Amino acid sequence: MQSRLRILLRHDGEDDLLHLREGLVREGLHCTLKIVRDDAALDAALREEWDAIVYVPARGVDLSAVLRRIERSPRQPSPIVLREEMCAEHTMQALHAGAADCICPMDMARLADSIRRSCMERRLPGLTCRVRRKLLDTVMKCTLAGVFITDEDGEFLFINDAAVRMLGLGGDCLKCCPGADLGTIFQPETSASIMQRLRGEGEFRFDTRIHAQGGHVFPVEGVLSLVEEAGQAYCIGAVYDVADRRAVEIALEEKEERYRRLFEDCPISLWEEDLSGCRQYFDTLREQGVTDFYDYFRSTPQAVAECARRVKILNVNKASLDLLEARSKDELMQSLGRIVSPASLPVLAEEFGALASGETSYDGELEHITLKGAIRRVEVHFRVAPENVKDLRRVVVSLLDVTERRTVERQLRDVRAQLEQRVEERTRELNSANARLRAEVAERRRTEESLRRSETALREAQSIARLSTWEYDPVARRFHLPREVFVLFGYPANDDGISTEMFLQLVHPGDRDEVVQSYYTALEGEQPYDMEFRLRRCDGGYRWVHVRCRVRHREQDGTPVAFGTVQDITDSADAREQIRHLSQELIRVQEIERQRMSLDLHDNVAQTLLSIKLASTTLFDDYEDIPEELRRRLARLSSGLQDAINSVRDLSYDLRPPLLDQFGLARSLELHCRELQDKTGVSMDFAAAGMDNVRLDSEMEINLYRLVQEALRNAVNHAKARNVAVRIVSSSPDILLRVEDDGMGFDLERRRTLALRERRMGLSSMEERARLVGGSLTVKSQPGMGTKILAEVPVRERQRAR
User: Fold this and answer.
1) For the stretch 508-535, what's the b/e string if a residue is b when 16 or more beta carbons lie within 10 angstroms of its beta carbon?
2) How distant, in Å, are the alpha carbons of 614, 624, 772 from that of 635?
3) What is the CA angle 433-438-442, rounded to 5?
4) Under a CB-based contact definition with an 8 Å cutoff, are residues 337 and 369 in contact?
5) CA torsion 82→83→87→91, rounded to 10°?
């Protein structure tokens, strides 16, 4: 049967440490545990032999005195230190003070291993000298610590391989080590000063830097002990290379500092808690038979309160102070019992239930009360690090203030309810609007159908009227024409249009200059134009087209583009040409008939009337007693005959001015102006230039004479002019004829419309007479601004008889 181990436990606190005994049992160690709590009890217990000694110091207590007290008992094993605040500094302090190991109280496995190792060391005195020597030799070769023995002068008597490597000594001088002593390790101290210190203290630990051969310097820790045997003093020492450990400690300190900065500066409230007391309570409850911790904590508020009491707050960050409106950590720690709202107990029950059930994380939401009494709604999240799952010694809890979010969510819920109500109202409105929209859609479909019919009718009308649209891009210099235009002129359709040069090649040479001038004038001035010209068909024939143009701007870049309509008017142009030809023939026949009637009136009627007048004058020459009344009647008859003769002569002159054949056009117009001025009182200003040696053919003379005659008649009778100017200039190869008055003037387009409606031929006859002789007529007039008439005709001189 396995014997129980005897363990002495020195404890500075008041706890019964029942969990320590239970933990060792779980690790397979059956022991008898004796607890002492002061130095006197410790000294009494050290008189007995123990398999292991465990020391649990209180927080902040210097453990060196107790460890030295235990070390002075030579038969006792080296003590094992259990300390809650574990760090590298505490561990080194315990080891320097003579502890065998320094362990966290919750690490039962490591504590059991240390106790077993202590028991094995206790059995070593039963080994033979040969075994001990072999064990020592093996340890000296395998240990990483440098071990050496010196004489009382500090010279090395023994040094193991690890010490040789640390000091950088040669391999052949390991046994004799000439010149090597303690000063090699403790430079600049000498061996004598070190041995003197040993004689005074007996043993001391050191921390120094070794200057090895080759200039290498590295930190070491070790211990020196003075042993006297047979009147001879020896120094036994061990040295450890702690360069790697120091580097790890520095890196660990930097990481801890970085963690602390992150912890303190984190904007989220962070709590570092020790829940090891809760873990012990969970184990106790489990031993009592509790299996469903969730249900247990929900139904047992006292258990929740006990868990809350066992929670130890290790640290909080600044965000936690701000969250709970605390001025300092001490103020917060003293007021922990006030911050948890009673309404949050169910959440705490869930949290402790999760921890007791083995969960390593939890997310919940509870209420906290700030130190100023404000209610804060917070989300709580905790995560247990893997190394703390068994003991719960370190748990990081984060609190996120969601008070404003919950307020906003509540407001959003209210707003959502309002929105839903508005949506319902809006839905009803939309249903009504949808009904109206369906009616509008139906109406639109009817409109679109009517529009399609209209478009179809328009296309048919355009086809019947031979009307199409076109567009000109001045940047690309291309005309875009519809397919119907290409078909009409016999060319293959081209969706890319035709270039400006190709289009101008299709224009009749006689119309080309006018087309180019009209187009560029319209494009530059952004004015519409309306003109007729001829385009060549594919078979070489020409067709008349009527083109209307407007200028607009592109929406993309504002570039002006021309667009308009083109209509095939060949049939109407031919009809107008026939009408014009008939009109000209009518004018010619009219002039011939006028000439015949003029000659007939002059040679027959006028002569007959003159003979009658002469006869009436001499009717009573052979009679003396003719009554006076009869003579007066005869005189009136003679005067009437004279008036008739004058009227016939005037009519004859109007039908065919005889002066044209005698004096020519310029002299005839001058005499006509003078006669009209004498008759009407209107000032007539006539001037001619270059007409002295020009004799026009009779057709040109009579047509120009009639043109001026009609212009003067309109100025006197209709315009009520007071001054009229007539100018005729021969400017080879044309004759320029201008008539200008200061009369009332008129709207040219309106006058043309009225003339067409009232069947007046004044302006039309003047234009036809100008075209009859191959010229053109331009009329400019505005209401109240007078009228200007300009005729330009090519010279056709009269052929001379041979």
Assistant:
1) eeebeeebeebbeebbeeeeebeeebbb
2) 11, 16, 48
3) 145
4) no
5) -50
Sheet order of strands, 52-56 included: 31-36, 5-11, 52-56, 80-82, 101-103
CB 49 within 8 A of CB 22: no
Structure confidence at residue 757 (pLDDT)? 63
536 burial via Cβ count (<10 Å: 0-12, 13-18, 19+): middle
Q: Establish whether the linkage from the previous residue to 794 is cis, with ω within 30° of 0.
A: no
- The amino acid sitting at 32 is T
Q: Which residues contact 27 (CB under 8 A, 6 or more apart)?
A: 108, 109, 111, 112
> Tokens representing 252?
């660990």
The Cα 3–Cα 446 span in angstroms is 111
What the block records as the tokens of 448 is 């679109």
Task: Identify the three-state secondary structure at position 460.
Answer: helix
DSSP string, 203-262: EEEEEEEEE-TTS-EEEEEEEEEEEEETTEEEEEEEEEE-HHHHHHHHHHHHHHHHHHHH
Number of neighbours of residue 351 by Cβ within 10 angstroms: 23
Pairwise CA distance, residues 219 & 226, whole Å: 23
In 3D space, the residue among 56, 64, 46 whose CA is nearest the CA of residue 6 turns out to be 46
Q: Are 547 and 532 in contact (CB under 8 A)?
A: yes
Cis amide bond preceding 74, omega within 30: no
Phi, psi angle pair for 202, to nearest 5°: 85, -40
Residue 220 and residue 209 in contact, taking contact as beta carbons nearer than 8 Å: yes
Asked if residue 411 lies in contact with residue 435, where contact means CB atoms within 8 angstroms, the answer is: no
Amino acid identity, residue 200?
A: G
Say what the pLDDT of residue 799 is.
47
Distances in Å between the alpha carbon of 751 and those of 565, 756, 783, 791?
27, 8, 11, 19
Helix (H, G, I), strand (E, B) or coil at 756: helix
- Among 552, 381, 565, 563, which residue's Cα sits nearest to residue 471? 563
Retrieve residue 219's tokens: 């930190």
Provide the residue type at 586 as one letter.
L
Q: Output the CA angle 665-668-671, nearest 5 degrees.
A: 150
Instruction: Transcribe 644-675 into DSSP letters.
Output: HHHHHHHHHHHHS-THHHHH-HHHHHHHHHHH
Number of other residues whose CB lies within 10 A of the CB of residue 313: 15
Q: CA angle, corner 287, sides to 281 and 290, nearest 5?
A: 80
Under 8 Å between Cβ of 668 and 660: yes
Residues contacting 273, CB < 8 A, separation 6+: 311, 312, 313, 314, 394, 395, 396, 397
Residues in the chain: 802
Structure tokens at 751: 């006058």
For the chain (length 802 residues), average pLDDT per consecutive 10?
Answer: 76 72 81 85 86 82 79 79 70 72 80 81 61 69 81 82 74 50 74 84 82 74 83 85 83 84 84 88 89 91 88 88 87 81 85 88 87 88 83 86 87 89 89 90 88 77 70 77 73 77 82 80 74 82 82 76 77 69 66 67 69 73 75 79 74 66 80 87 89 77 84 87 90 86 85 65 75 85 89 71 34
CA distances from 378 to 269, 342, 360, 404 (A): 10, 14, 20, 10
Q: What are phi and psi of 220, to 5 degrees?
A: -140, 160
- CB of 573 closer than 8 Å to CB of 547: no
**117: its two tokens:** 């190792």
Q: Which of 531, 591, 547 is nearest to 768 (CA)?
A: 591
DSSP state of 603: I
**Structure tokens of 74?**
């030579």
What's the CA gap between 195 and 190, in Å, rounded? Answer: 9
- Residues 760/741, Cβ–Cβ less than 8 Å: no
In terms of Cα–Cα distance, which of 80, 63, 62, 79 is closest to 71? 79
